[in-house]
Design a protein that fits this description.
The strands form eight sheets. The chain has a nine-stranded mixed sheet. Strands 2, 3, 6, 11, 12, 13 and 14 form a seven-stranded mixed sheet that branches. Strands 34, 35, 36, 37, 38, 39 and 42 form a seven-stranded mixed sheet that branches. A hairpin with a 2-residue loop joins strand 13 and strand 14. It is mainly beta. The longest helix is centred in the last third of the chain and has 22 residues. Helix 6 crosses helix 7. 11% of the residues lie in helices and 29% in strands.
């Protein structure tokens, strides 16, 4: 086992970018147990108290080379893979090979599972416990798990496991049983495999003689030699005795960290204050010693054990002796770390210090006590600022600019929660200066285990309301985070959760002050969920002012209308009137894997306007091939399908604008600003209204710490847009404030994982703002009435460049202004 190593969001979640993974159909293949001679033989994932000794054992013929084999752990709640462990070595005389996991490293229940994958990438077994589920990604994507039929509980004693028993030479010959006393390292009691008889207990093998710890000051193996100048120790499996000063004591304690309060990593970090003078070798190392006598920061200690690696962090393990040679020793000065710049492997296990770091992701702080930090400033999604040719380089640059701030604890949802309280959140953009901690590594990321109190400066406070966008009508777009009236599907699982979810969504929509709201990610159940939300909005408003457009005839059977989630349009009947009681829906084969665009035309005493709610295909990569494959690591998949969807949407908007006046295209396009689908829309003459915002404010979603625009606001050219805002109430917030989080409050913050977008329209003339690039700021009046336009013969803007107000050409305000020359054609 090892220091705190919890899965990162990027490891535990599919790359859906806010779109729930589409449900697998009933025809998904079932992962039946095969007759493979290599199979999963023993599992331990849950026991009374803190889950310890978690492990998975693979059995097979003696001499089997496990190179290329892997075990992939799956989260049964959403079907996604969260940890992949590569197997190595050869199965010895014991007929088994075991993989140890950190404390709480294997999820426990309801259901969860694992896949055993061979070197060709084929799933040999896809097993689950406490039920079955379908895999949404990874090597088992499309398969349904096989329940092993036995399970562990929170009352299972430590030291027990689930095991196969029986006699034979392949998986088919054995039956799962337990919990029973574990036998990792040997065949199970009552099991005979290929003639080898099990009986429980450890495989005796040949044990190396114990290393003589010697006395303080005797010759040692320096820490730098244990670390080596590469990613792994060159002394793997060898007995070592070393000395160093304790720089981080995380042996146990009350687990209340972070900071100077002891964590619970079952060990401590030591550092050689002298070192070997080679900047490529680290002078620090973690000592995994759960049963060692207590040490304290500032103790110079002598440690005897074995050099090892755990989740790619070098450590001294199997410790047989710890002696305190001296106390009160001055600690080495923290080694300054620059991001990017410092080779983090060269300071693994050492005391490190940092200038100013910025919180670039906070959503999982309550789950694993982690914050993703970056410098300088937050991370920007490559697809928002560059095309595919630059995406890989920008992704690598972002990876080099970030690090995880951990909480020196091992476990999930440990209380008190690190860094956040019910009254005080940490939001993206907040900063920490002078951070000091030990450099650790786990779950594919370098991580700081803090040794001093951590204090954040609030740079990005919660916005109480969206910025004013002007106009006489306001239109918004809001993702409602799987608002399902059917409990236990994608959204809330209990009536209490649903009540909380609804309260936050109602607070967010009410706070927008919009007259029409385009909804995404609401349950597609013949309008029931939409009407339920309308009823809740009316209750909050105190009267029946909210209504919803009805689904058109045939909705729910046509292409693009059969998904579990749908688009919808709700509106305030006291301020706008729909021209038809039912929506207009684009039925097009391009949306066979997405949600059909959902449009409605409204009036507010003036010119009509049309709103289209959209939700393109997600970026998840399950089943993506050919042109839909990921263009670069982290770039997401199904771009080709989204291009087709953008083309179909462009033609749809052109048709709508004939009778529907100005058209607003809103919603989650699952495409960032510089990606091909957006180029299709702008190439068709649609105006990107969010382009008017400052670059720092132009985002609606955060994934893996990178901010970008997924929730767009486009208009037809010349539309009377007075302003636009993204209300940052969701993307910058930790999940802890969500409806099912520990700090729920009936306010709009973390009502979803997407920020809502608000647009103002001036449909009756008046002081308009920009209708496209180059216009005056919202609310800036045009020239006084009667001021002449340009001299005769001076042309207006080129075709496709919108005017700035209600009149044609460059009319900026109440009067004709410069409206004598024609503007470009409206679409």
């Amino acid at each position: 086992m090892r220091p705190a190593a919890r899965p990162l969001a990027s490891c535990a979640l599919a790359l859906t970018l806010g779109v729930a993974v589409l449900p697998l159909t009933a025809t998904a293949a079932s992962a039946e147990t095969t007759d493979s001679p290599v199979f999963v033989n023993e599992i331990h994932y849950d026991n009374t108290g803190t889950d310890t000794g978690e492990a998975i054992e693979v059995a097979g013929p003696v001499g089997t080379d496990l190179a290329g084999w892997s075990i992939v752990l799956y989260n049964g709640a959403n079907g996604t893979a969260y940890t992949t462990t590569a197997l190595a070595g050869t199965i010895g005389d014991s007929s088994v090979s075991s993989v140890d996991y950190p404390v709480n490293g294997i999820q426990n229940g309801g259901p969860d599972g694992l896949a055993l994958v061979d070197p060709a990438g084929a799933v040999v077994e896809f097993l689950s416990y406490e039920g079955t589920f379908a895999a949404a990604d990874g090597p088992a994507a499309g398969l349904t798990s096989t329940d092993i039929g036995v399970a562990e509980t929170a009352g299972t004693p430590a030291g027990q496991s689930l095991q196969r028993t029986g006699s034979g030479d392949s998986a088919f010959d054995f039956t799962w049983t337990g919990p029973a006393d574990d036998s990792f390292g040997a065949l199970n009691a009552g099991q005979t495999l290929n003639g080898v008889v099990g009986g429980g207990g450890e495989d005796p093998g040949e044990e190396e003689p114990p290393v003589d710890p010697g006395a303080c000051g005797d010759p040692t193996t320096p820490i730098a030699q244990i670390q080596g100048n590469g990613a792994t120790t060159p002394l793997l499996g060898q007995g070592v005795t070393t000395e160093g000063v304790v720089i981080g004591d995380f042996q146990g304690g009350d687990g209340s960290g972070p900071g100077p309060v002891p964590g619970d990593l079952d060990g401590f970090f030591i550092q050689d204050p002298t070192g070997d003078g080679d900047p490529a070798t680290s002078e620090g190392v973690f000592v995994f010693a759960p049963d060692a006598s207590a040490v304290a920061v500032g103790d110079r200690v002598r440690v005897t054990g074995t050099a090892g690696e755990f989740f790619e962090q070098t450590q001294v393990q199997d410790v047989t002796a710890v002696a305190v040679c001296e106390s009160g020793v001055a600690l080495p000065e923290p080694t300054p770390v620059s991001l990017p710049g410092t080779d983090l492997e060269s300071v693994e296990g050492m005391l490190t210090g940092y200038d100013t770091l910025t919180v670039t992701e906070s959503r999982n702080v309550e789950n694993f006590g982690e914050l993703r930090l970056s410098t300088p400033g937050v991370l920007i999604e490559p697809g928002d600022v560059a095309d595919e040719s630059e995406g890989a380089a920008l992704t690598a640059e972002n990876r080099a600019r970030q690090i995880i701030l951990d909480d020196a604890r091992n476990g999930e949802s440990l209380q008190p929660y690190a860094y956040v309280t019910a009254e005080q959140t940490v939001r993206r953009g907040d900063t920490v200066t002078g951070l000091t901690g030990v450099m650790g590594y786990g779950f594919d990321a370098y991580r700081i285990q803090p040794t001093q109190d951590v204090t954040f400066e609030s740079v990005n406070p919660r916005p109480a309301a969206p910025d004013a966008v002007g106009g006489d009508v306001q239109v918004a777009s809001a993702n409602v985070l799987n608002y399902f009236t059917t409990l236990g599907e994608r959204g809330a699982t209990t009536p209490e959760d649903f009540e909380e979810q609804e309260a936050k969504i109602v607070a967010a929509i009410s706070g927008l002050g919009a007259d029409v709201v385009a909804l995404q990610e609401i349950e597609n159940n013949a309008g029931l969920a939409t009407q339920t939300l309308v009823d809740a909005l009316n209750e909050a408003a105190g009267s029946a002012v909210w209504a919803a457009l009805a689904n058109p005839e045939g909705y729910g059977t046509q292409v693009g209308t059969t998904d579990a989630i749908t688009n919808a349009l709700v509106y305030r009947s006291d301020s706008v009137t729909p021209t038809s009681p039912a929506a207009t829906v684009l039925v097009d084969e391009a949306f066979d894997n997405a949600r059909a665009p959902y449009a409605g035309t409204f009036t507010a005493g003036g010119a009509p306007f049309t709103v289209v709610s959209n939700h393109f295909k997600s970026k998840g990569c399950g089943g993506a091939t050919g042109a839909n494959a990921e263009p670069y690591p982290g770039g997401g998949c199904f771009g080709a399908d989204r291009v087709l969807q953008a083309q179909a949407l462009s033609a749809f908007v052109e048709d709508l604008s004939v009778d529907g006046g100005d058209v607003l295209v809103l919603g989650d396009l699952n495409s960032y600003t510089r990606e091909d689908p957006i180029d299709v829309l702008t190439g068709a003459g649609l105006v990107d209204q969010l382009a008017a915002l400052d670059a720092a404010d132009r985002y609606s979603f955060v994934f893996d710490g990178e901010q970008g625009v997924l929730d767009h606001a486009f208009s037809t050219a010349g539309a009377s847009v007075t302003g636009v805002d993204v209300w940052h109430i969701n993307a910058d917030e930790p999940d802890a404030y969500q409806y099912n989080g520990p700090f729920f409050a009936p306010d709009p913050f973390r009502a979803s994982d997407h920020d809502p977008v608000l647009v103002g329209l001036d449909l009756d003339g008046g002081q308009g703002g920009p209708g496209g690039p180059g216009g005056p700021p919202p609310g800036v009046p045009g020239p006084p009435p009667g001021m002449p336009g340009p001299p005769p013969g001076v042309p207006g803007p080129p075709d496709g460049v919108p005017g700035n107000g209600n009149g044609p050409g460059n009319g900026n305000g109440n009067g004709p202004g410069n409206g004598n020359a024609p503007g470009g054609p409206r679409r």
